[in-house]
């Protein structure tokens, strides 16, 4: 994400004399950040996300910065004259991929979300849950610098919800930013870098930020040269019990990304153990957020 996205004194209303849905909004989204947006129904959360995704323009104020952005709307238009693989392949070419590369990426993402069995079924025949998998896949296809998710987990099955959490971890680990709304308060609990609440058309950062991830966790013990530190993903907590041996604790949603990076390192780290735990005791002074 080459430039931060900024909203400066942004307001939005839908008619000339209509009520302000949002007003006086100041917000900066930086590379690698995970931002949660909260608020009751009808407060303007979706409007804020559409402004961030630039599918709507502000009535007043300024939006600056143009990261490559992908968006999963609250209501995905599933009645499209495509099959899932055809739709994703088309979008991939729009994003600049060759047709062959776009087709491979489409197959990969549909497989990850368990949608491969109906990859060639007309989208008009898909269930809401199946359509939602396509909606999520289309947003992740081009490795966006800014990923905007409006209730993106709704309608997904358990495996696909976990896969989306892993994809969010991958985006932030790669330096992308993610902004999301979700009705489940436990979604990525403790992981966001900041949580904002929309109320009465204003946006306020919650000050009671959770400083440690909420379980489940995965604890990975690895070994390598004493003068080398292992790769980490956002919200990794690290201890070095003995020189060259590290105990890395991450939210379970981030563990696959961490393991992949450890094994892809050159030379790779030797993974001694991988243990799942609900609430391991990790000293706060060992935390490495980035």
From TrEMBL:
Keywords noted in UniProt: ATP-binding, Nucleotide-binding, Transport
ABC transporter domain: residues covered: 5-222
Region (Disordered): 224-244
Compositionally biased residues, Basic and acidic residues: 226-240
InterPro entries noted in UniProt: AAA+_ATPase, ABC_transporter-like_ATP-bd, ABC_Transporter_VariousFunc, P-loop_NTPase
GO function terms (MF aspect): ATP binding
Protein name: ATP-binding cassette domain-containing protein
Organism: Streptomyces cellulosae
């Amino acid at each position: 994400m080459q430039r931060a996205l900024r909203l400066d004194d942004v307001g939005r209303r839908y008619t000339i004399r209509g009520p302000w849905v949002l007003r006086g909004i100041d917000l900066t989204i930086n590379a690698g950040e995970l931002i949660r947006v909260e608020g009751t129904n009808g407060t303007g959360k979706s409007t804020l996300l559409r402004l961030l995704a630039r599918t709507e323009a502000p009535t007043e104020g300024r939006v600056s910065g143009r990261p490559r952005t992908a968006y999963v709307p609250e209501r995905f238009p599933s009645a499209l004259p495509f099959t899932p693989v055809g739709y994703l392949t088309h979008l991939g070419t729009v994003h600049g991929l060759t047709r062959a590369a776009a087709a491979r990426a489409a197959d990969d993402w549909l497989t990850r979300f368990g949608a491969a069995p109906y990859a060639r079924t007309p989208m008009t025949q898909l269930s809401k849950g199946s359509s939602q998998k396509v909606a999520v896949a289309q947003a992740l296809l081009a490795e966006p610098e800014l990923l905007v998710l409006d209730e993106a987990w709704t309608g997904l099955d358990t495996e696909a919800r976990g896969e989306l959490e892993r994809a969010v971890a991958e985006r932030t680990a790669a330096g992308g930013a993610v902004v999301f709304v979700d009705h489940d308060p436990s979604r990525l609990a403790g992981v966001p870098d900041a949580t904002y609440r929309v109320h009465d058309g204003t946006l306020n950062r919650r000050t009671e930020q959770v400083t440690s991830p909420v379980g489940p966790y995965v604890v990975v013990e690895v070994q390598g040269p004493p003068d080398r530190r292992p790769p980490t993903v956002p919200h990794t907590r690290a201890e070095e019990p003995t020189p060259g041996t590290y105990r890395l604790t991450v939210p379970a949603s981030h563990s696959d990304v961490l393991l992949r990076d450890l094994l892809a390192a050159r030379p790779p780290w030797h993974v001694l153990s991988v243990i799942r735990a609900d609430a391991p005791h990790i000293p706060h002074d060992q935390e490495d957020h980035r």
